[in-house]
Each structure stands twice: as structure tokens, then as C-alpha cells.
Design goal:
This protein is mostly helical and 124 residues long. The protein contains five helices and no strands.
Length: 124
């Protein structure tokens, strides 16, 4: 069941193969080049010659409507492995409104590192 292809069809297939092959290698090159871009970006970030002013946390009341804006800001602290868990609890307390249900929740746990993940779990 071998089909005979015309010369024009064979040429068309070969050109399509060449285009595909060229595109494949272009994309492969771009993917292989990405790690150098990432490492150069991270080295640029580490060379800041000035100090930025501290960011004031958006205060969280415990209302669900305020959760995403609050968490998008606080997540920087949450994901930073260099910050001690006790300090994260202190930052979390400072980022809640005094007397709010969020503050009451944070203060209902002892301010020790072992409870940080539980506090975050209940906040969410």
C-alpha cells in the first residue's frame, strides 16, 4: 500500500520539515539560553546600591474581601526563608487591624515559631 507522491508533494513535505526543524532549533536555543537570563537578573537584583523605604503593610481586618490584596503583599514575608518564624508572627500581628477578628486570631496563639503555620492556616 505504498502511495506514490508527486515531486511537488515531496518538495512541499521537505520544505515543511525544514521549517519545522528550523523552528525547533530556534526554540531549543531560546530555552537553553534562559538560565543565563535568570541568573543575570538575580545578580542585578543583588547589586542595589540604595535602600528602599520600608513598605507599610495593608492592614487586614479578617474580611474575606480584603484577603487577596493583603496576602499578595504579606506573601513576600511568608515566602522569605531568611525571616525567622517568630518575626513572621510579629509582622503578621502588625499587619492586622487592632481589635479585628484577624488580630484576635493571631493573638489567640502563642507568639512562638511552632504556631506560625497554624495561624496562617486559620487566616486563610
Amino acid at each position: 500500500m505504498v502511495e506514490k507522491a508527486s515531486e511537488a508533494e515531496l518538495i512541499s513535505e521537505m520544505e515543511a520539515k525544514d521549517r519545522y526543524s528550523t523552528r525547533y532549533y530556534e526554540l531549543k536555543y531560546k530555552c537553553e539560553d534562559r538560565p543565563s537570563l535568570v541568573s543575570s537578573e538575580s545578580s542585578i537584583k543583588g547589586k542595589r546600591s540604595f535602600k528602599l523605604p520600608p513598605i507599610e503593610f495593608k492592614k487586614y481586618s479578617g474580611d474575606l474581601i480584603d484577603w487577596l490584596p493583603f496576602w499578595s503583599q504579606f506573601r513576600v514575608v511568608h515566602d522569605d526563608l531568611s525571616i525567622d518564624l517568630n518575626d513572621k508572627i510579629a509582622y503578621l500581628r502588625q499587619a492586622t487591624i487592632d481589635g479585628s477578628k484577624a488580630r484576635r486570631l493571631v493573638e489567640s496563639f502563642p507568639a512562638v515559631a511552632d504556631y506560625y503555620s497554624k495561624i496562617i492556616e486559620f487566616e486563610v
